[in-house]
Amino acid sequence: MLPIVDKPLIQYAAEEALQAGAEKLVFITGYAKRAIEDHFDSDHELEKELEAQGKHDLLDAVRASCPRMRAASTSASRRRSGSATPCSARAPRSATNHSSSTSPTT
C-alpha cells in the first residue's frame, strides 16, 4: 500500500490492468492482511450521501476509483512462497463490485 502522490501503487497497477483489457482482478492476501481488500471495497454509505447531496461529479470519481470486477481470495494459513497461486483458480468467476473471500481447503 505504498502511496505514490495521491493513491497507493496497487491502485495504479489495477487501473492500468483494466485499461489494458483485464476483466477481473484477483488479489490473494494473507488471512490477517485486509488492507488491499479494504482499499478496493466500495463505500455504500458514502455513495448514498454523495447522491443525496447531488454531488454527482464526486460520486462518479468515487465509483471510478474501484475496479469494475474484482475478487479477493484469502490464504487461510502461512505457506511457502508461491502457494497462493492455486487460490486464484478458486476465485469466484463473476465478482462484480463485491469482494468475495474464499479460503483454500488444505
Description:
This protein is of the alpha/beta class. Strands 3-4-5 form a 3-stranded parallel sheet. The protein has a two-stranded antiparallel sheet with strand order 1-2. It has 5 helices and 5 strands. The protein has helices at 9-19, 35-40, 44-52, 56-64, 85-89; strands spanning 3-4, 7-8, 25-30, 70-75, 101-102. Helix 5 (85-89) links the parallel strand 4 and strand 5. The protein is elongated. The protein is 38% helix and 17% strand.
SSE map:
Layout lengths: L2 E2 L2 E2 H11 L5 E6 L4 H6 L3 H9 L3 H9 L5 E6 L9 H5 L11 E2 L4
Parallel strand pairs: 3-4, 4-5
Antiparallel strand pairs: 1-2
Measured on Cα atoms, how large is the radius of gyration?
15 Å
Kindly estimate the percentage of residues that lie in beta strands according to DSSP: 15-25%
The residue-averaged pLDDT reads: 74
Task: Supply the number of helical segments.
Answer: 5
Shape: elongated
Through-space gap between termini: 29 Å
What share of residues is helical?
25-40%
The residue ranges in which pLDDT falls below 50 over 5 or more consecutive positions are 95-106
Would you list the SSEs in sequence order as H and E? EEHEHHHEHE
Largest sheet: 3 strands, parallel
Strand order, biggest sheet? 3-4-5
Class from helix and strand fractions? alpha/beta
**SS elements, strand count:** 5
